[in-house]
Amino acid sequence: MKTRTFIDSVSVEVKAGKGGDGCSSFRREACVPEGGPDGGDGGIGGSVIIRADHDTDSLIALYYAPRAWAEDGVNGRGQKMHGRNGKDLIVKVPCGTEVYDLQTGAFLAEVLEDGQEALIAQGGRGGWGNVHFKSSVNQAPERAIPGLPGMEFRARFELKTIADAGLLGFPNAGKSSLLAALSAAKPKVGSYPFTTLNPIVGTVIYPDNVQLRIADVPGIIEGAANGVGLGTAFLKHIARARILLYVIDMAGTDNRNPWDDYRILTSEIEQYNPELLGRPFLVLANKMDEDAALENLPRFIKETGVNPIQVSTISDDFPGLLELRQKLRDLIVVTAPAVVEAEAKPPVPVPVPVEEAAAEDDVGLITPEQLAKASFIVQDPKSSRKKGRK
Known about the structure:
Elements: E1 9-15, E2 48-52, H1 60-64, E3 67-69, E4 89-93, E5 97-101, E6 107-111, E7 117-121, E8 152-159, E9 165-169, H2 175-182, E10 200-205, E11 211-216, E12 243-249, H3 258-272, E13 281-286, H4 291-304, E14 309-310, H5 319-335, H6 354-360, H7 368-372, H8 381-389
Parallel strand pairs: 1-3, 2-4, 9-11, 9-12, 12-13, 13-14
Antiparallel strand pairs: 1-8, 2-7, 5-6, 5-8, 10-11
Helix pairs in contact: 3-4
């Protein structure tokens, strides 16, 4: 039985931990008459946190275990013992994962960089023990507050692959072969439509250790925006790409006209998201080692007005591949920073030292000298007892 290997959207039941209940108890010790209340507080419930992990490339773990439940806080106990806080649940997800409320569709959080964390469900607050309710008029309170429940809802996890460039093209256009020629990725290569069934990311490494990531998505055909073929379900994986690479089968292997392929591609992408057409892009004329490609190239330039980069994967030293590598690097530098960035976090407030705070506002403060001379403070307990005997 075959199992699924790539999941980019999954529904998860998220539940933060409940806060522990406060305790209602009274001190019972020898030689301590009327000990009074000593019920402790309950612990805080654990929260649910997502953490980006560069070693995770799919949401398949959540697909087979669609529950994210954090630990409950422990109840308080006598002798003013505070219950243990519930352990936070850390959910590892791929970089580029977004979380939405499944019922309302509201955006909750996203993580883009390795190690970045985001809180999606806050744990419940622990309840108070009866020690908090003692007073001069109520010296034996039996009241204790139960812990509050944590946040609970159904969430939708969406993965949008993070890459510097995205490959777009018809099936059999040679996108997977091109990715294998540019990077160390090993995608499945075949001469039949829809060989690529899920996005694949490869890393291009330059001699000076500069790296950029290229994402290959399943082929797009006419009518994809309306659900034909694999539709545009995987186009979300290039939504974060800074550069789009249109891969055209210039040889017309499947009896298609290259200029029509380019027109259909741009039309389908415009229907999916018009904003993508405004991104920097390169047009690649693939399979230029074939005679048919050399014949179709002049007409393609005439019909589209685009002079593409001529590439072929028959050899890693093909001149067009070297040109493509250099143009990719130049465009990445020009378009930095990335199109989609993490939301800027507000600056963390810096605590003001006590001395500076006193200097700014010393109204109502008692200086150490005044405190030492205060009449309500006994300086020497022995002298006080002597005065009492007299």
